[in-house]
Amino acid sequence: MTTTFRDEKLIDQIKKWAAEFLQRESNGASLITVTDVKLANEAKEATILFTVLPDDKADAALEFARRQLGEFREYINKKVKAGRMPYFHFDIDRGEKHRQRIDEITIKN
Fold first, then answer.
1. Is residue 59 predicted with pLDDT exceeding 90?
2. Distance separating alpha carbons of residues 1 and 91, to the nearest angstrom
3. Structural domain boundaries, residue 93
4. From 20, 38, 46, 69, which residue has the greatest number of CB atoms within 10 Å?
């Protein structure tokens, strides 16, 4: 699937807004970093991927983010003046964790 310029702009905006929202709403027990947004179903769905430090806080951070979905949608609706926003999902970016682990192994060798 190719992404359009419009999709790329939407992805960038969602990443920015998700990062702002999670930083504002989290209790600071972990560092949540939004790494990517994946659009699906003609931009009707968006999965917001993030990493968490320390790693042992990832499950709690994911639960927190999922509980905040309704408030996140309200936050987005205040930012967007026109157009339809996708249905949002939050998930841990496991691919980023794997890339980091590969980098660690490569650097050691």
1. yes
2. 21
3. 5-108
4. 46
Number of domains comprising the chain: 1
**pLDDT per residue over 62-87, tens digit each?**
999 999 999 999 999 998 876 788 99
Looking at 1-109, which runs of residues are DSSP E strands?
31-40, 45-53, 87-92
- CATH number where 81 lies: 3.30.300.20
Length of the chain measured in residues:
109
User: Does 8 have pLDDT greater than 90?
Assistant: yes
Handedness of CA 81, 42, 46, 12 (dihedral sign): negative
Report the C-alpha gap between 65 and 4 in whole angstroms. Answer: 28
Cβ atoms of 38 and 49 within 8 Å: the answer is: yes
In this structure, what are the phi and psi dihedrals at residue 29, rounded to the nearest 5 degrees? Answer: -70, -20
Residue 1 scores a pLDDT above 80: no
Q: What per-residue confidence (pLDDT) applies to 84?
A: 81
